[in-house]
Predict the 3D structure of the following.
Amino acid sequence: MARLRHTDWPDRLWIVRHGQSAGNVARDEAELAQTHLIDIETRDADTPLSALGHRQSEALAAWFADLPADERPNVLLTSPFVRAQQTVHAVADALGVDRSEIGIDERLREKEFGILDRYTVAGIKATFPELAAQRAQVGKFYFRPPGGESWCDVLLRLRSVTEVLRRDHVGDRVLIVAHQVIVNCFRYLLECMDERQILDIDREADVPNCSITEYGLDRDRRDARFELQVANFALPLREAGAPVTAAADKPAGPK
């Protein structure tokens, strides 16, 4: 995979998926029961962390707090969704950062599922067979459900976020807390991937909750490049005794 040649980037960029949410739990239960709808009362944007998700967030926060002061994040950005904000709040509290200093950016929100929101795989096939067939033909990368987004739509909004990173945060250490698709779409952009490469990664495994994907730039090197350091790093959770979870975000259409 290509490395980005320009050097006007943050010194460090961590992209983290939120902790396990109540929606993740409800989705797993619905898929196991083979029901058509995910039983959850809140809208997606308001779905909070589960009890385990809070533990994962605290473990993540402790890991960042253990870094030397000059290596910790000095810029915190988050999706506006409750589960992402709760995750980043744990980090901010551990670092002694006032929550009012956290940047909330709607471009980091979850992928919009439109008419398929809250449906399980079985529910999509039973209720929207034509859409399921279209998705199978068009492919996950380009398929846009009615009222929702394709991966390409998400990439379009994230391209402007990368420009902000290069304009406003050169030399900073930036932490972004968001969602599974956001993590993978950032990887597509920052590692100069194509459709096949990112979907191969997506098929391998879901992004673990509270896992870290890190990019960095060694400014002491003459050939310095902003490049991947580690992907989906979940060791902080294991060290703290918080179970690692990697359920897909809801809903999940046919593979």
User: Anything to note?
Assistant: DSSP finds nine helices and six strands in the chain. The radius of gyration is 18 Å.
